[in-house]
Amino acid sequence: MKKDWQSVYDMLTANSGFDYDKYRNCVTTNVPRVWETYLENHKWAAKWENEKLPHYEELYVIFWKDGAQGNRAKSFIEMEVEVNAEEQEQDVQGEETSSARNKKMKNMNKSNSMLKSFNDVVSLRADRLQKSSIESSEGIKFEMDLERKKAMITNALSKMTSMTQFERF
Predict the structure, then answer these.
(1) Radius of gyration of the chain (CA)
(2) Most exposed among 70, 81, 125, 129, judged by the fewest C-beta atoms under 10 Å?
(3) How far apart are CA 59 and CA 92, in angstroms?
(4) Could you read off the pLDDT of 80-105 as tens digits, one per residue?
(5) Is residue 155 part of a domain?
(6) Beta bridge mates, 52
(7) How many CB atoms lie within 10 A of CB 38?
(8) Which domain of life is it from (predicted)?
(9) Is residue 135 part of a domain?
(10) pTM of the complete model
(11) Backbone angles phi, psi at 163, to 5 degrees
């Protein structure tokens, strides 16, 4: 999943004219020859011309930090840990003033708010992913049951000697 998401993410962020259609769950473009031009240097991307990637937005929330670059690529948890470490360090040194305390409180409130938002999004995405997984499992069970029943019919028909081959077919 991560490789597929990363491939689509790279296409969408390459300023190449691609968009993601969340209703059709696929990469799209309205720019002439964009696929051909992109595929000249990115042969691996050919499958995305006709293939869907459901849940791209949910996967974005899960995998984005790994795709981000630079020293600003931090998760909400890392940011909160950093704020807490700074606060402890300044407490130990005894250099904390009341305005610095206010700034830290604001930063912690922002961090807590961002962490709560992140947790809410992850929970929502996890619920949706679980529902999709259940639906897929039910579809697979239905297909397997259907195949079993087909085999039973074929077996039963082959045992009916009173019917011609054509009638059994």
Answers:
(1) 27
(2) 70
(3) 41
(4) 567 677 777 777 666 555 566 667 67
(5) no
(6) 26
(7) 22
(8) Eukaryota
(9) no
(10) 0.38
(11) -105, 150
The range of the structural domain enclosing residue 58 comes to 1-70
Both ends of the chain: CA-CA distance in Å?
43
Contacts of 65 (CB under 8 A, 6+ apart): 73, 74, 75
User: Under 8 Å CB-to-CB from 8, ≥6 apart: which residues?
Assistant: 20, 27, 48, 53, 56
Task: Decide: 4 and 26 in contact? Cβ < 8 Å.
Answer: no
CB neighbour class for 17 (10 Å; exposed up to 12, middle 13-18, buried from 19): middle
Q: How far is CA 32 from the centre of its chain?
A: 28
The tokens for 160 are: 């009916």
Structural domain count of the chain: 1
The gap from C-alpha 142 to its chain's centroid, in whole angstroms, comes to 26
Torsional sign, CA 39, 43, 47, 52: negative
Give domain status of residue 41, yes or no: yes
The Cα–Cα gap between 150 and 152 comes to 5
